[in-house]
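Module 6 notes. Inverse folding takes a fixed backbone as the condition and produces residue identities as the prediction. Think of it as a translation problem where the source language is geometry and the target language is the twenty amino acids. Below is one complete input and output pair. Work through it position by position during the lab.
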């Protein structure tokens, strides 16, 4: 903790980086990473029933801790039943520091396998700026069109970043920003 300062920074470190610390071997590094992964899972398991995810705040709340430790852009699909309750959140793609490659095929494959009625996608911007890029808008529109063909509603695309004085929310919702068709 002296080197990293907080658990988020520690969770972002990879096992190789941890083994460079004095007294930390491969087994200890693996144990630390496993413990942090289990802690993240535990935070999801304490929910008494599947959470209702009918707004961008609830989607951001579900994924915030998982996204916070990602060192590169990472896309999740949040699968929902007909009542907008969580079926499963699945990591679909990892990109680079500032870019992410996603295709509707991967997003909807998971939705079909889990028999989802709807889905939301979410990804992080490591820069902290949650404003959507042109690529984010383009991908969202492609997903909406694919979902219409498959009759699986895309309810939102949430981008997680950081809170700032100008933006008190640490996320942006493309639905709230008007990028979804009525």
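Target side of the pair, the amino acids:
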């Amino acid at each position: 903790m002296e080197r990293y300062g907080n658990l988020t920074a520690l969770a972002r470190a990879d096992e190789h980086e941890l083994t460079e610390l004095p007294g930390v071997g491969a087994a200890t590094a693996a144990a630390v990473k496993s413990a942090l992964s289990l802690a993240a899972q535990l935070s999801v398991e304490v929910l008494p029933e599947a959470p209702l995810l009918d707004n961008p705040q609830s989607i951001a709340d579900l994924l915030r801790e998982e996204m916070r430790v990602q060192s590169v852009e990472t896309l999740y699909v949040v699968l929902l039943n007909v009542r907008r309750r969580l079926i499963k959140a699945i990591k679909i793609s990892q990109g680079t520091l500032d870019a992410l490659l996603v295709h509707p095929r991967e997003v909807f494959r998971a939705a079909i396998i889990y028999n989802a009625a709807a889905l939301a996608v979410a990804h992080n911007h490591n820069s902290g700026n949650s404003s959507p890029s042109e690529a984010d808008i383009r991908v969202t529109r492609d997903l909406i069109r694919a979902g219409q063909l498959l009759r699986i509603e895309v309810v939102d695309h949430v981008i997680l970043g950081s809170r700032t004085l100008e933006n008190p929310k640490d996320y942006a919702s493309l639905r709230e920003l008007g990028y979804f068709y009525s």
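Reference fact for the lab report: The mean pLDDT is 89.
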